[in-house]
């Protein structure tokens, strides 16, 4: 296997996908750092808003590998890591190469700018996945070029672009993703489908969603809570897509604090929201197909149940897949 | 992400899985080499019998990275690579670490022994996935220990063991795997399901299988050839599992040269074969469940067709998954 620039960039892309859906309102970003002998020093990703950017985490790990100074590993705050690196780097980064799936940011937001950090540390070579279209954060590339950083663009443009598709969408107006869990025989009914780990991941996604859309039948049959309790997170507002408005108000989702629940027969409500998850099966899949940007399938390696997607007609492009504990996660774009 | 011994071993395991089903009668083996600063120098796998072992390919790549002597890259024959390394290594491997999913072999088969090569090159540290139970090839670990190589065992025992399950089976008596292609909605009918790349992979597997088992209905409906033409490979013998023996002899599979075709209503025939692939859908899945060691599903990210696995009941453990062009490959062990 070729261990080259594409390989290092693809490690960064894969790592970033693991946190897709969790970084809102920030993009999913990954970063790999290799040393002067192309030794792999760090592979990191941005995990959630308020946490350090991927580049900062990668520089933190790489600094430890290069200097053996373990004090930096105690720092969790991005500003503290920035400051520590600026004070102690002693030109250790001089010959490294940094691979970032997204152009390093040039603005000071929740954390200081990554591009300025890269310049201050004297890093000579930065590979960029895609340019950042976000007007506030962008043009880190120009800043780096002015500071004599050799900025190169990856050949894995398509994969780097796929990775920030959700960010581009919610940055522009809103991002809508359809999540479902199914067995290998396409069923979605009869008991729990996904493993505990997959369900935790869904709760972590709900925690950063502002609206969750679900079908009326699912509410009546499953009597769900639709919160983020498995990760101690906040519960999103809920839109129950239903012609009838009568629901047993003892169904737990109605009693979750600090949440609005709407029961409506249209999707007009979504205009007020930015990061929207739809959970459902075949019926919701059909009803929402015109508004969905990306599909996320949790596929359990089991066969059972009664029905689900057996009659569906669709074609997808797989953007990323990985094993999540016992299940498979499939991030997909719909083609047909 | 932690870049540690487990990470390097898992790179080797993942690389080896890419050639699972293709290495018969050899095991699928992967090898990672890292330099003295833990820089990643090579990730390689054994690709098919007669080709160099994973360790030899990894040492070849690593030698080039360490010395910049490109002449070694022209060599394809394992003995030539061995000899070149022995003549020119000049102690460049002294501080490397080698991670092999399987204990390096100690016997001279189609290629010279990897364990003796490791000893001759002065490698100080070797991480082993699992011990080799093959009596002829095994005890490379003892040879290395006698030569003061620091032999360590990975903590990823379970994954390394899963990887050589097919080898252990055909080494003992025979290995039987069930391969099917399905859409995301579990259908297996109505036209081509898998991408060209997936079909090539199946042909490459047929090339090393000695028996292919298929159901009578599939033969009548699909009128298949069941050869390995997409990879210019040899066609395996075919067992058509069928109560009725009347088939249109114009069906292409009957005209493939150098192949036996059996039409039988039992699986007794398999006792004469070592590496056996079953291709089919739900019916064959049910009929063969008692003899199958591993399942391989090519999952296309499409929904359509009419029927397939919708009524199946089963539970699997996923051993390995990866994207194969547009499809997903799932290697699984059946649990229920």
From TrEMBL, chains A, B:
<dbReference type="GO" id="GO:0008703">
    <property type="term" value="F:5-amino-6-(5-phosphoribosylamino)uracil reductase activity"/>
</dbReference>
<keyword id="KW-0511">Multifunctional enzyme</keyword>
<comment type="pathway">
    <text>Cofactor biosynthesis; riboflavin biosynthesis; 5-amino-6-(D-ribitylamino)uracil from GTP: step 2/4.</text>
</comment>
<dbReference type="Pfam" id="PF01872">
    <property type="entry name" value="RibD_C"/>
</dbReference>
<comment type="similarity">
    <text>In the N-terminal section; belongs to the cytidine and deoxycytidylate deaminase family.</text>
</comment>
<comment type="similarity">
    <text>In the C-terminal section; belongs to the HTP reductase family.</text>
</comment>
<dbReference type="GO" id="GO:0008835">
    <property type="term" value="F:diaminohydroxyphosphoribosylaminopyrimidine deaminase activity"/>
</dbReference>
<comment type="pathway">
    <text>Cofactor biosynthesis; riboflavin biosynthesis; 5-amino-6-(D-ribitylamino)uracil from GTP: step 3/4.</text>
</comment>
<feature type="domain" description="CMP/dCMP-type deaminase">
    <location>
        <begin position="3"/>
        <end position="167"/>
    </location>
</feature>
<dbReference type="InterPro" id="IPR002734">
    <property type="entry name" value="RibDG_C"/>
</dbReference>
<dbReference type="InterPro" id="IPR016193">
    <property type="entry name" value="Cytidine_deaminase-like"/>
</dbReference>
<dbReference type="InterPro" id="IPR024072">
    <property type="entry name" value="DHFR-like_dom_sf"/>
</dbReference>
<dbReference type="Pfam" id="PF00383">
    <property type="entry name" value="dCMP_cyt_deam_1"/>
</dbReference>
<comment type="function">
    <text>Converts 2,5-diamino-6-(ribosylamino)-4(3h)-pyrimidinone 5'-phosphate into 5-amino-6-(ribosylamino)-2,4(1h,3h)-pyrimidinedione 5'-phosphate.</text>
</comment>
<protein>
    <recommendedName>
        <fullName>Riboflavin biosynthesis protein RibD</fullName>
        <ecNumber>1.1.1.193</ecNumber>
        <ecNumber>3.5.4.26</ecNumber>
    </recommendedName>
</protein>
<dbReference type="GO" id="GO:0009231">
    <property type="term" value="P:riboflavin biosynthetic process"/>
</dbReference>
<dbReference type="InterPro" id="IPR002125">
    <property type="entry name" value="CMP_dCMP_dom"/>
</dbReference>
<dbReference type="InterPro" id="IPR004794">
    <property type="entry name" value="Eubact_RibD"/>
</dbReference>
